[in-house]
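User: Could you check the structure of this?
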Amino acid sequence: MSSPRFKAAELAISRPSEDMEKVESLKPTSIYGKNVFTIAKMKDYLSKSTYKELIQIIGEGTKISRELADQIAQAMKTWAISNGTTHYTHWFQPLTGTTAEKHDAFFEPDENGDAIEKFSGDSLVQQEPDASSFPSGGIRNTFEARGYTAWDPSSPAFIFETAAGKTLCIPTVFVSYTGESLDYKAPLLKAIESIDKAAIDVVQYFDKSVTKVTASLGIEQEYFLVDLSLFHARPDLQFTGRTLFGHMSAKGQQLEDHYFGAIPERVLAYMVDLENEALKLGIPLKTRHNEVAPSQFECAPMFEEINLAIDHNQLLMNLMEQVAVRHHFKVLLHEKPYSGINGSGKHNNWSLITNTGVNLLSPGKTPKNNLMFLTFFVNTIKAVYEHADLLRASIASHSNDHRLGANEAPPAIISIFLGSQLDEILEEVESARVAKKVKNDANLWHGIPKIPDLKLDNTDRNRTSPFAFTGNKFEFRAVGSSANSALPMIVLNAIVANQLIEFKTEVDKQIKKGTKKDLALLNVIRRYIKESKAIRFEGNGYSEEWALEAETRGLSNIKSTPKALDVYVKEENLVLFEKLGIYSKRESEARHEILLENFFKKLQIEARIIGEVVTSQIAPACFIYQNELIQNVKGLKDLGLSKESYSSQINLVERISKHTNLILEKAEEMRQARKRANTIEDTRELAIAYDEIVKPYFDEIRYHVNKLEKIIDDNKWPLPKLRELLFLR
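Assistant: Sure, the predicted structure tokens are below.
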């Protein structure tokens, strides 16, 4: 009789290819936004005056009156019910890292006992989930349950459809009873407002018609697929998202034949189905392809306003899970689900767009536009240089620690890649001399290198760089595949906003002293180029030489999450977030606490799973094998054969016994280390204890498990119970 795990493998291999026949590749334009209450649809359900008022409010970010909310709620309800929904929910992003929802039915009984469909402005604008049941970092006590979700009109409501029914989802922020944010969206909206204001003030030097600057974002999502039967056969995958046991397969990615290869038919069926569902929800998925590692893939949408892009990415991850089950797959979003092959990231492509349609990070064709580009380009570089540790903290997690620095992901050292052309231009701008007296624009540019008419792809791509300029945007490559992009984008927008504020202050000082505007701009830009030069690196970020060079440049190389997170509670960063109105000191400290808790709890789960698998599966399998060998030796002895006839079996028993005992010994030591760590009250010290004392046992235990497997392989002795634990590489 086959073991459960071998049965799982047989089932995975025999999956029917008929999944493709069930999926129809629909015309994107015919389904795009079908399940979204878009601005265009609102126009059909609202009066002209109400619609005009709503558009103005969304554009200006002002408050919505209850009267207007009632009218919008009625329109939203009519649209939703006409599309088959029975319930609605406030859809929010708590600090768990996932999304959350509480469903309410549209119906209410009236005074006559009859059921009526009801959805008021109050229900649209505000709901009350239990705040004590979500991570708060000490902001809320267990007995303080009240919290509020509040509608975000800038992100459209949508209908989420499952086999069980349809639900109207209303994107919201989530705050405590005392007003502190308990989610990712509220501080993100504040960061977006900060970058808007700061960028407008600076862009006024060049174009006074600009009244709004929008941060745009395109999120590339990498992921692995594994057959559901194989997933359920592995307790480590189920509970931790990664394989804690197993060694390298004979064939991994060394032939480089998976990347951009022909997409397997069964996977393509999943991708088409996912795209159809995503397009209905207004997620503009455009790209799909095989990634580098076996069974690794990527999808990517068009660029969107940053708040909507992040909402869509969170929704996309939900969809990926739901659609995968229909195709008997499990989506793995862990940054490093299998050791020895590439991990997964979530590349965040960020830029700034004016309401006049100008990309502020796109080089222009005229000197003035070139200077505007240079202003925002250099200020972004300076912001990253000044706050590199804060950016590092924004992508820190237990799972991403496995990926950063491995030979397929950016290192933990934050650096910026520009490409040789732009790097040379900054060198020229820094070294050029400018005449003190400037009569006109022509003289201004005399002796100062103009940025040439650059093509869109004016730089190469450097996959080893965590923060690279790619033509008209910066690509933050270090974000992990399971992360909510809101956190790194909160930090990036905050530090660039802060830098632009400082830049304007310095330029205005020079102008006030009589320096011509363009010369004042160049003076500050030139100094910023010089001051931030250390962060620019054009070489191989994987090399040992870079780690040594980065140290001489004064760049940090923080490899562990607990230490990376320390920067959140540094005084200067507490002040920065508070000054910009993004986080209060209490909110910053709470997030630091939550991220530390998340780190050590995930390690705690992994330690428990390793202990359980070792003691309940691997060691017993080894004991069974030892008993078989002992019985074999006993039989040979009973036959009167010489000791030489069974010496190899005795040697094998001793070697297996040695490694089995060491596995159990190390598992017990790990358990005791975990018990000691759990007595530590300070969350940071507890996280460090798990990182430095508990986690090292993982590799020690795996080492001896792999030794056991090698012994078995070398001696050609069958041990199904052990092999079935390790066959999934």
